[in-house]
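*** Residues and shapes ***
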Amino acid sequence: MAAVESIEGSDYINLEAKVGKGGLNGWSDVMAVQSLLKFTEESGRIFVPGEVPEPNGIPTSDLPDLILKYQKQANREVGMREHLKEDGVIGRARGKRSWGGRNVWTIVDMNDRCRILSLTRLGSGLTGDFIRDLQDRFPALRIAIGTPGITF
């Protein structure tokens, strides 16, 4: 099950198992990846509007392609000092770095990107807490990552 975990002192949505080509593609992990991709799409930097489907936890045949596009586009950004493995797969992060000193897990990069989006769009209804903002935007993510619901 995907979950919020502390990695090097910050909260991240992390996966239990791989998502994408050849991955286990469990519902909660897919829901987490789809939510991060869709939130990223709303920035207009990597995906065009409507390219990423609404998150539902169901792995589609285009999910590995969306992951690969994310990895490739992120690696091409000016100032990208760390690199993502371009394989159409997102694995569980074990620390911030993956296979070498200048590489980062895709799931960590996605979380960091959503964290920045949440902070830079405070005036547009976002709270600055990217995990809360993701859960507000995609309520099923609360179930997927095992966090409590909203109390009214």
About this structure: Residues 3-144 form one domain. Strands lie at 3-7, 10-14, 19-20, 89-90.
